[in-house]
Amino acid sequence: MPAAVLGVGVATDRLAGPHAALGYTVVVLGGWVSLTIAGMMLKIVPFLVWYRVYSPRAGREPVPTLAQLSWPPIEALAYALLVAGVSMLAASSFIGDAAWIRAAGIVLALGAAAFAGALARVLGHLRSEHPRAIEAPAR
Q: Could you report the per-residue pLDDT of 105-114, keeping only the tens digit for each?
């Protein structure tokens, strides 16, 4: 919704100037594209890791579920920080206040660190302590 409102404002010259255009760009790229990609990665990566590590062993021994691979509190923290950071960055870019832009950058960096931590936990299942089933030799 904010992207639509800003987009119409910029397109009709109700909002003009570089700050309005930058705020719109942050909302579209940071708010929609980046958050969509992050959300999809938190759903797709656990599936791919589970499929690679545990699918050959499923039915033969107990394996974790997809939900058990993830880290919901850190994912929620990453989401909250990323949304807050993008919102702050869009508002501060629209206003043009460098101090608030720096603060928004810090919030975004903390959100990115939480996101990286959530993915690292999932990718940790690829380590050797989670061995894959022995595959048939190549013919």
A: 999 999 999 9
